[in-house]
């Protein structure tokens, strides 16, 4: 465990080789604008986590393959990396960019990167085995991506949709030709229902959350997300920007955050590793809660406009990467998310609620008390992953 000690005030820097004495975990409440030292138990402050030594942890890179596969798909094009100078000034950082996933392989979210690569790998293995039904659970975007991929590959899909997903988003999954079963329960329950249904002959489970004994497919999904980060590297270089000092990632079960860890924590010659900040809804902070406790935790989930992030349990495949490689995590409420969505839209990034969460999270993280824990210089380059467009969440209006 990288951060065995909770030390609210004194954070010692780890050495770049990660060999520094004891890594430290720092817990602040950015909304309170001060660190929670003294009488208060750090774990009683639910909104913030920082572990500066995590940026010096490293792991092997993602295997090759997904990027070339995506580039071979009809309609593939890198999504835009939009620079946001006015917002950068407001936040007091050097250069700010949003990776805009509002139109990815014909869908309004990044999820097709994982679904297409995982389904490709599964069907390769299954070649000659006859038609299949691809089964998954979703809170919106992943299910639509699996349904679309199944249709394009001439296969069937059965998608279990959790409670709280907007009817228009459910209709969009059905519109891909999938059979849809709505589950009157939270996302975790939809995952259980999909898993049970995938026991039937002729079915293949395509879930983006790993559990013991079910790791290969979510592993391929995470590999698929690597394309987004490779594009970002190239686009930053073309913009004459430095490699990122901070990357803000929205987290549901944490598979996208796992892909961020794999990308930015694998050895990179002479580059200072960025801070990786996860942003979650206050209604479902499973990654933040798990990081604060040092072990995977299930949290009760509530209602949030950030439907794609409304997950109660982190992926157990992602967990070791999140534990060791994520150095900051924050939870934000829907009002902060809506304000971020409005600001991104005003600057040309049509973010849906999950896509706006990183900006909301960054704002909380850059609050006066939190910034020192992040060790971010005023000329820092920051990347926000705007993982869905407004169209992904048709019922949502941040106005
Ligand atoms: C738009 C969007 N952003 C981010 C995420 C979070 O991804 P993960 O569940 O891998 O953490 C999701 C998950 O569904 C999503 O739909």
From TrEMBL:
Residue ranges annotated for the Tryptophan synthase beta chain-like PALP domain, each copy included: 74-386
Region (Disordered): 1-39
InterPro entries listed in its UniProt record: TrpB-like_PALP (IPR001926), TrpB-like_PALP_sf (IPR036052)
Key words of the record: Pyridoxal phosphate
Cofactor: pyridoxal 5'-phosphate
Pfam families, alphabetized: PALP
NCBIfam families: PRK08206.1
Protein name according to UniProt: Tryptophan synthase beta chain-like PALP domain-containing protein
Protein species of origin: Streptomyces albiaxialis
């Amino acid at each position: 465990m990288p951060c065995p000690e909770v030390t609210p005030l004194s954070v010692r820097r780890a050495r770049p080789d990660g060999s520094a004495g004891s890594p430290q975990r720092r817990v602040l409440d950015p909304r309170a604008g001060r660190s929670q030292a003294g009488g208060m138990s750090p774990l009683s402050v639910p909104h913030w986590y920082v572990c500066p030594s995590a940026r010096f942890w490293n792991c092997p890179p993602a295997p090759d393959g997904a990027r070339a596969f995506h580039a071979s798909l009809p309609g593939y094009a890198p999504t835009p990396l939009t620079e946001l100078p006015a917002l950068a000034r407001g936040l007091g950082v050097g250069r700010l960019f949003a990776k805009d996933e509002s139109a990815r392989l014909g869908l309004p979210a990044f999820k097709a990167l994982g679904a297409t690569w995982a389904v490709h790998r599964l069907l390769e293995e299954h070649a000659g085995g006859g038609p299949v039904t691809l089964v998954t659970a979703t809170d919106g975007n992943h299910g639509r991506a699996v349904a679309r991929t199944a249709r394009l590959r001439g296969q069937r899909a059965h998608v279990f949709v959790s409670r709280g997903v907007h009817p228009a988003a459910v209709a969009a999954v059905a519109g891909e030709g999938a059979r849809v079963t709505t589950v009157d329960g939270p996302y975790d329950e939809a995952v259980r229902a999909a898993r049970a249904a995938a026991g039937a002959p002729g079915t293949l489970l395509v879930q983006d959350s790993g559990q013991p004994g079910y790791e290969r497919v979510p592993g391929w999904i995470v590999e698929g997300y690597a394309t987004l980060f490779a594009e970002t590297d190239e686009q930053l270089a073309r913009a004459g920007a430095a490699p990122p000092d901070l990357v803000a990632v929205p987290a549901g079960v944490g598979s996208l955050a796992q892909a961020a860890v794999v990308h930015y924590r694998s050895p990179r010659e002479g580059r200072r590793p960025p801070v990786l900040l996860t942003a979650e809804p206050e209604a479902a902070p499973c990654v933040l809660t798990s990081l604060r406790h040092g072990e995977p935790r299930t949290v009760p989930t509530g209602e949030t406009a950030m439907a794609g992030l409304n997950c109660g349990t982190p992926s157990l495949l992602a967990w070791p990467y999140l534990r060791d490689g994520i150095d900051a995590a924050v939870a934000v409420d829907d009002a902060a998310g809506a304000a971020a969505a409005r600001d991104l839209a005003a600057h040309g990034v049509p973010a849906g609620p999950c896509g706006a969460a990183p900006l909301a999270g960054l704002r909380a993280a850059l609050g006066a008390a939190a910034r020192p824990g992040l060790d971010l210089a005023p000329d820092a380059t920051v990347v926000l992953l705007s993982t869905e467009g407004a169209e992904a969440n048709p019922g949502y209006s941040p106005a």
